[in-house]
């Protein structure tokens, strides 16, 4: 079964890249090849699959937007490669920082351009074999991708939205040609993100995920796979979860609550909590990504290469926290499912303290021949939706109940109704999102002036508001 599914995935990726490369090779005056790519159903599917594949690259969500840049900014690691020194220390004018941020910026806007071209063809072209249902799904996902990419660019390069939403931020690209777009105030970018997400939700109103769930089978025919593994695409519920994330970031707690509750109440059989043995070392059901909770993720063929280069205990230098700082982040609870599963000491490794194991390649065996989490890069997960719902809940009792639901599925005891809710939500963010790139944006949304570090027990660092704003890359600012 594993061989069949992996062959299907390989065929899917190969066809996706072939179609995507054809599109990327198009010259401005060469429309014949572009028309050929978009002139048939599999070609259209292939381009969208290629966009998702490119999103999983190391210079995008396969590493840069998840495992490195935001997590280093969030002070998750006290040990790291020297090339990250300036970024961690807040010296954003260094050439090493420019290399990192320029890569994320360029890859994201290239993906936006690809998405816009695809969206335009889906809207205009006839005779390519697409049904109305196909078009709705394609348009829903492309609107969602465009919003997703711009939102993370806004969160990284834009102002602290809660205190200066009118500050100049980033361009919002909706065109199909490569050109210089006007840099907009953050509030205007946010409006366009909202508009794209509203369109996405409307187009995806009949997404198969609503009635069929994510489905975990593959057919080697690309067009057939498009409706499979819906959690590896921006499906309807992923859009709702993203709307909750966006609404909370802009301070609209009422809308965030509505979106989060829709996901919670309607997906209890689609996205389920990881079982307790998923994080148990040696378990045949080990699943360190907690894949059943992933509402949206990517098939990242380079996932284990990233693990080996960044976190492997056999390396002389890795991204890792101080042992005491790590334990402090988990409030000294060694039975927390995340701590016991993700942080381990390899007796044969160069590193003598605990290192990050979350993205280690799963072991296959007769009892578990096809781990569903293979190559799965999480981007939106169920626990975040619960944290959003708790933060925006109408009363403290409801909020604590929501937070306790997550804690129960992380091996923790329940909190009482008088708990400091904001403190406890922050604690859970710190524990839950290693390697996913979300903690820094939580701090930025809160404009936190002091944040914990993992340099030792109880260590903190001051963060003035300007430190949350990463300068636009030189490739962008010098061309204006």
Automatic annotation (TrEMBL):
The region annotated as signal peptide is 1-19
Would the keyword Signal turn up in this protein's UniProt record?
Answer: yes
Please list the residue ranges annotated as the RagB/SusD domain. Answer: 375-448
For this protein, the record's Gene3D superfamilies field holds: 1.25.40.390, 1.25.40.900, 2.20.20.130
**Where is this chain primarily localised?**
membrane
Q: Which InterPro entries match?
A: SusD-like_N, SusD_RagB_dom, TPR-like_helical_dom_sf
Q: Cellular location of this protein?
A: Cell outer membrane
SusD-like N-terminal domain residues are 47-207
State which residue ranges cross the membrane. Answer: none
Has keyword Transit peptide?
A: no
Identify this protein by name. Answer: SusD family protein
Species of the source? Chitinophaga costaii
Question: What does UniProt list as this organism's lineage?
Answer: Bacteria, Pseudomonadati, Bacteroidota, Chitinophagia, Chitinophagales
């Amino acid at each position: 079964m594993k061989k069949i599914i992996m062959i299907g995935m390989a065929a899917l990726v190969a066809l996706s890249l072939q179609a995507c490369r054809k599109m990327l090779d198009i010259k401005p005056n060469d429309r014949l090849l572009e028309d050929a790519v978009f002139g048939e159903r599999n070609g259209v599917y292939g381009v969208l699959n290629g966009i998702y594949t490119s999103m999983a690259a190391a210079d995008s969500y396969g590493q840069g937007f998840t495992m490195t840049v935001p997590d280093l900014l969030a002070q998750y690691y006290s040990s790291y490669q020297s090339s990250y020194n300036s970024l961690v220390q807040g010296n954003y004018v260094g050439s090493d920082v420019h290399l990192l941020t320029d890569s994320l910026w360029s890859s994201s806007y290239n993906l936006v351009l690809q998405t816009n071209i695809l969206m335009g063809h889906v809207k205009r072209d006839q005779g390519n074999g697409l049904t109305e249902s196909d078009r709705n799904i394609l348009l829903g996902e492309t609107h969602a991708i465009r919003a997703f990419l711009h939102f993370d660019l806004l969160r990284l390069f834009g102002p602290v939205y809660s205190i200066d939403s009118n500050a100049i931020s980033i361009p919002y690209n909706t065109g199909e040609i490569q050109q210089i777009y006007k840099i907009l105030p953050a509030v205007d970018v946010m409006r366009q993100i909202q508009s794209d997400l509203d369109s996405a939700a409307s187009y995806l109103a009949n997404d198969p995920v609503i009635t069929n769930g994510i489905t975990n089978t593959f057919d080697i025919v690309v067009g057939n796979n498009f409706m499979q593994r819906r959690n590896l695409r921006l499906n309807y519920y992923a859009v709702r979860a993203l709307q909750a994330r966006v609404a909370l970031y802009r301070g609209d707690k009422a809308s965030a609550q509505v979106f989060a509750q829709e996901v919670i109440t309607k997906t209890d059989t689609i996205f389920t909590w990881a079982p307790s043995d998923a994080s148990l070392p040696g378990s045949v059901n080990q699943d360190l990504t907690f894949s059943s909770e992933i509402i949206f993720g990517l098939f990242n063929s380079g996932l284990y290469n990233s693990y080996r280069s960044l976190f492997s205990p056999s390396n002389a230098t890795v991204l890792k926290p101080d042992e005491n700082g790590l334990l402090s982040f988990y409030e000294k609870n060694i039975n927390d499912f995340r701590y016991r599963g993700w942080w381990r000491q390899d007796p044969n490794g160069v590193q003598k303290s605990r290192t990050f194991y979350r993205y280690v390649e799963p072991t296959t065996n007769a009892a578990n021949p096809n781990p569903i989490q293979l190559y799965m890069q999480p981007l939106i997960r169920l626990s975040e939706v619960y944290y959003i719902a708790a933060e925006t809940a109408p009363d403290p009792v409801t909020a604590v109940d929501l937070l306790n639901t997550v804690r129960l599925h992380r091996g923790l005891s329940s909190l009482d109704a008088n708990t400091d809710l904001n403190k406890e939500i922050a604690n859970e963010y710190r524990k839950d999102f290693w390697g996913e790139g979300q903690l820094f944006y939580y701090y930025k949304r809160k404009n936190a002036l002091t944040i914990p570090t993992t340099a030792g027990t109880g260590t903190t660092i001051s963060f003035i508001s300007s430190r949350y704003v990463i300068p636009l890359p030189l490739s962008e600012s010098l061309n204006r």
